[in-house]
Write a structure and sequence with these properties.
Elements lengths: L13 H13 L8 E2 L4 E6 L5 H4 L2 E6 L3 E6 L4 E6 L8 E5 L15 E5 L4 E6 L11 H4 L2 E2 L3 E4 L5 E6 L10 E6 L4 E5 L8 E3 L7 E7 L11 H8 L3 E8 L4 E8 L12 E2 L3 E5 L11 E6 L5 E5 L3 E10 L9 E11 L4 E7 L4 E6 L3 E6 L5 E6 L5 E6 L5 E6 L3 E6 L2 H15 L17 H14 L1
Parallel strand pairs: 5-9
Antiparallel strand pairs: 1-30, 2-3, 3-4, 4-5, 6-7, 7-8, 8-10, 11-12, 12-13, 13-14, 14-18, 15-16, 16-17, 17-19, 20-21, 21-22, 22-23, 24-25, 25-26, 26-27, 28-29, 29-30
GO molecular function: ubiquitin binding
InterPro entries: Quinoprotein_ADH-like_sf (IPR011047), WD40/YVTN_repeat-like_dom_sf (IPR015943), WD40_rpt (IPR001680)
Keywords: Cytoplasm, Repeat, WD repeat
């Protein structure tokens, strides 16, 4: 126990006081151009439903105070505040559709969904962001009220995902997972009740969801509504990760006729069927916090067992995925961390995998080799989310510390960050002693950095 005359420090251990002092000192850093917000931040979502040139500046942030914020990350201005939830919001999803109750004349309608600890899913029509946020945007940002609420879970809603267009006429489904272990499917445009449900999907809470469309299938982004009929699928694979560490696989299919009493104890209606396929994937020892499918159709995971893993799909059975075939997933790579891994995203163009960890770091890994390339330091509490901004080489990260930070994966800037980190790790006092300060980069690395800097100039 530390001795102190400060009453605020009574009954605190020396370790807790030292941790508090360390965080207080670290909070002053400006790495990653921090934007400070008035709440703990639980998740981040890039605006992939807009064309890249319109969306690269915009992110959505789930807040512990019960709101979702749309932020222009370049300026730090709030361009919309989505209100309604009465408890922390741990998960958000964006669908390129309009709600049936709120038809839109926009060529690129979008609906924002948020899962809340109050057991409800909230839906808001998403207005287009202003082209150039003004300095007064933060106080005058519109508060958007929910247009629809979806009630079906009996405990916290912890995970959301939106499917590709399914069936004819095509429709997109919203998938939700909760601390009640249930997996529900909703009509994203109109569903006031689940159109498919598996109440005992997992013995423990569902923390993560991902949709794995067939290889080669691509969403239409902003133009999705107009082209959904041409891209519609009959079925799609869904993956769910739980706090028990297992990852389950599900076949979500849409037909012309509804029914009841789906396979595996599930409920189905409106022709939507959700059934488990194959054995669970036992690649993690405990909670699976995130599941992401990259452009190559590979699965990336983040877990509290201190690893992020890469799983690749091999076809099993006849036919392609979505045509009666089924994929078998095998572990191809494991990225070891010093603490819980909370989120993962992939820069397919650059060949990087980025992870957010409870130890406050944002790490950049070589996607091909699995080697750690760099660790960005700036957050002073647990990193809860990472997202690649579309059409850019920039990753946004959010944290319990209430800050949003951005990190460049552009070659020259990434190498500069590595060089600065190496200099910061160099023992202090060498110059004062008269000893020359030598570079921690090899001659080859210094030459490569110089070339990259010249290219950027």
């Amino acid at each position: 126990m530390a001795g102190s005359s400060d009453a605020d420090k009574y009954f605190q251990t020396t370790a807790s006081l030292e941790a508090s002092e360390r965080k207080s000192a670290k909070a002053k850093n400006t790495h990653g151009n921090p934007v400070k917000l008035p709440s703990k931040l639980l998740a981040v979502l890039a605006d992939n439903a807009l064309p890249p040139h319109d969306a690269s500046n915009t992110i959505f942030i789930a807040e512990a105070r019960g709101a979702v914020r749309r932020l222009a990350i370049d300026t730090g201005e709030t361009t919309a505040l989505f209100t309604g939830p009465t408890a922390p919001v741990p998960c958000i999803a964006l669908a390129p559709i309009a709600l049936a109750t709120h038809p839109s004349s926009s060529r690129a309608p979008r609906t924002l969904f948020a899962g809340c600890w109050d057991k409800v899913i909230y839906a808001w029509p998403c207005p287009p962001p202003p082209p150039t946020p003004s300095p007064s945007a933060r106080p005058s940002a519109p508060a958007v009220k929910p247009a629809l609420t979806l009630a079906g879970h009996t405990d916290f809603v912890k995970a959301l995902a939106v499917t590709p267009p399914l069936g004819a006429p095509p429709r997109r489904l919203l998938l939700s997972g909760g601390a009640d272990g249930a997996l529900l499917a909703w009509d994203a445009g109109s569903g006031a009740r689940p159109c498919a449900a598996v109440r005992g999907a997992h013995a423990r809470g569902v923390l993560a969801l991902a949709v794995a469309p067939p290889a080669g299938w691509a969403d239409g982004g902003a133009s999705a509504g107009a082209g959904d009929a041409a891209r519609a699928l009959d079925e799609v694979e869904v993956l769910s990760g739980s706090s028990g560490g297992e990852i389950k696989r599900w076949k979500l299919s849409v037909s012309g006729a509804g029914g009841a009493g789906g396979a595996g104890g599930g409920e189905e209606a409106d022709g939507v069927r959700l059934e488990e396929c194959g054995e669970p994937l036992g690649v993690h020892a405990t909670s699976v916090h995130a599941l992401r499918v990259d452009a190559d159709g590979e699965l990336w995971t983040a877990s509290a067992d201190r690893t992020a893993k890469n799983l690749v799909a091999e076809q099993e059975g006849e036919g392609g995925a979505g045509a009666g075939g089924r994929r078998a997933w095998r572990e191809a790579m494991a990225l070891a961390h010093p603490d819980f891994v909370r989120d993962v995203c992939v820069d397919d163009a650059g060949g990087w995998v980025v992870t957010g960890c409870r130890d406050e770091a944002v790490r950049v890994w070589d996607k091909g080799t699995g080697s750690l390339h760099h660790a960005f330091a700036g957050h002073y509490e647990e990193v809860t989310g990472v997202a690649l901004l579309p059409g850019t080489r920039t990753v946004a990260s959010v944290s319990i510390d209430g800050t949003v930070r951005r990190w460049s994966l552009a070659p020259a800037e990434l190498e500069r960050a590595r060089a600065e980190a190496a200099m910061a790790r160099e023992p202090k006092g060498k110059e004062a002693d008269g000893a020359p300060t030598s570079s921690l980069l090899t001659e080859e690395e210094e030459k490569e950095l110089a070339e990259l800097m010249d290219e950027q100039d």
